Amino acid sequence: MDSVCEECTDAKRKYDSCFNNWFSDRYLRGKNDLDQCDTLYKDYQNCLKTYIEEKGVDLGDISQTYLGTTADKLGDQMK
Known about the structure:
This protein is mainly α. The protein has helices at residues 9-25, 38-54. Helix 1 (9-25) runs antiparallel to helix 2.
C-alpha cells in the first residue's frame, strides 16, 4: 500500500517490509526485540511530518507526551 503522500511511499514500503519480516520471523516466535525497524519507522515518520507541516497543519500536540501524565485520562483506569 502506498503512503498518503507520494514522497513518502518508498520510506513506507521499506518500513512495512521490515515490520512484516520482524513480525513473522521474530515476534511470532517469542522474540520481542522492538528496535529492528526503528530507524526505518523514524525515517517514514519524519517524511510524513514534513509533508503535513508543508500543508500548514500544526503538529504541536502530537509531539507531546501524555501517557503516564495527569493529562492521561485512562491512566487511572488502567491501574
